[in-house]
Amino acid sequence: MVHLVSAEQLSKATERAKSGNLFVQPTSLMRQYRVTNRDTGNIYVVDFFVRKSDGARFGQCTCPGGLNNKVCKHLSAAAAYHVARMIARREANRAARMQQAA
């Protein structure tokens, strides 16, 4: 499991993810994603966790690097997808609240 502190921490993995042919899909579980490498057919599962006591964020991937607590390209790709998904959800909730207030 990797303690996620900053975007800079993911920078090298992000470059690898950009050059890869990765496809990210959410699973039925919140904060869990399936990342498929379209070149090799390998599929890995990425989970994100938030520690309730202090809000610390963590990520974990089932690839060999992830299992050794490395920041991998799958984790980076899933993190980007997760952030975009949460922003869209937040904006949809905000728009719904505005419609209710009107």
Structure report:
- The protein has 102 residues and is an alpha+beta fold.
- It has one domain.
- Helices cover 41% and strands 26% of the residues.
- The chain contains three helices and five strands; from the N terminus they run βαββββαα.
- The protein has a five-stranded antiparallel sheet with strand order 1-5-4-3-2.
- A hairpin with a 5-residue loop joins β2 (22-26) and β3.
- α1 (11-19) crosses α3 (73-101).
- It is globular and about 50 Å long.
**What's the average pLDDT?**
93
Beta-strand portion reads: 25-35%
Output the helix-strand order.
Answer: EHEEEEHH
Q: What level of helicity do the residues show? A: 40-55%
Number of helices: 3
SS content category: alpha+beta
Strand arrangement, largest sheet?
1-5-4-3-2
Radius of gyration based on Cα positions:
15 Å
By DSSP, the count of extended strands is 5
Distance between the termini: 45 Å
Low-confidence stretches: none
Number of domains: 1
Shape: globular
Strand count, sense and barrel status of the largest sheet are: 5 strands, antiparallel
